[in-house]
Design brief:
The protein is of the alpha/beta class. The protein is 43% helix and 17% strand.
Length: 281
């Protein structure tokens, strides 16, 4: 496959639920789409959170068929953005694949991408959302990715998931190492992003301060997104796009919203740079 034309693949994955990986996929996808890139969002989480953000309730032609066979349908959801919806039955796939003794079990998604090369090359980015685990489907996503993006909140559960993610990625690389050619088949690297950093008055909360300290000591972090009501509204029932909100003149008169926009764009730019470094490494 002509790698120069193959899209950049990023997977949001951390073995802790509710950390903000799905919002990251949507926001970063919109960020790249607004730059003119064609972005495909692939929902591999059987909870279908990303799919439901776009009010799509599809039971045919879903990401499940990447593993079981059958048609898939990338649905246009925004300008320059397409979504491949998830299916609840994704939760049963790891057990089915193991029970059937599937060969090269971590490269099924890679095989599918090769088999659908013309379709995949029509996109510039593939952004994959996963279930918060380290199971077979998540590892399939990591096997084709330039980077694993772990979104970390100021909670003990979230920060404790970082070493678990590190170990799972390390194990995947070891399990798939090509001994014959003495090279890694999986080249994905772990990137981290803080989110929901909160201040009370002029001071950060204790847990937020602890996460900020971790961020400053770990160069895998691209930065952090502060806690902001605008951010929550972007994923409420009304689903106001965060980028559209940040273009609203009335909203942007407030100084704190200007600061939030600066911080959000700073993190997105930092992510772009990190991904570019890994892509050309």
């Amino acid at each position: 496959m002509d790698e120069e034309k193959f899209p950049i693949v990023l997977t949001a994955a951390l073995p802790a639920g509710g950390t903000g990986k799905t919002p990251f996929i949507k926001i970063y996808g919109e960020w790249k789409a607004r730059q003119g890139y064609k972005v495909a969002l692939i929902d591999l989480d059987h909870q279908c959170s990303l799919t439901e953000l776009y009010d799509i309730y599809e039971t045919e032609s879903t990401s499940l068929n990447m593993f079981k066979g059958g048609n898939v349908n990338f649905i246009p959801v925004e300008e320059n953005i397409w979504l491949l919806p998830a299916h609840p039955n994704l939760q049963y796939e790891p057990a089915r694949l193991r029970a059937e003794g599937t060969q090269n079990i971590y490269f099924l998604l890679e095989d599918w991408l090769y088999e659908h090369e013309n379709l995949i090359k029509s996109f510039d980015y593939l952004l994959i959302d996963t279930h918060p685990d380290t199971d077979t489907l998540t590892k399939n996503a990591l096997a084709v990715s330039t980077a694993q993006v772990g979104v970390v909140m100021p909670t003990e559960k979230s920060t404790n998931a970082i070493p678990k993610a590190e170990q799972a990625l390390s194990d995947l690389k070891a399990d798939t190492y090509d001994k014959r050619h003495k090279e890694e088949r999986v080249t994905c690297e772990l990137l981290l992003m803080g989110t929901d950093i909160e201040k009370i008055g002029k001071h950060y909360t204790k847990l937020s301060q602890q996460l900020l300290s971790l961020i400053s000591d770990d160069n895998r972090f691209v930065g952090y997104i502060p806690h902001k009501e605008l951010f929550a509204q972007a994923f409420s029932d009304e689903k106001h796009s965060i980028w559209m909100q940040l273009e609203n003149e009335t909203i942007m008169r407030e100084k704190s919203n200007q600061v939030f926009k600066y911080q959000l764009e700073k993190v997105m730019i930092s992510m772009d740079k990190k991904v570019e470094e890994l892509t050309w490494h």
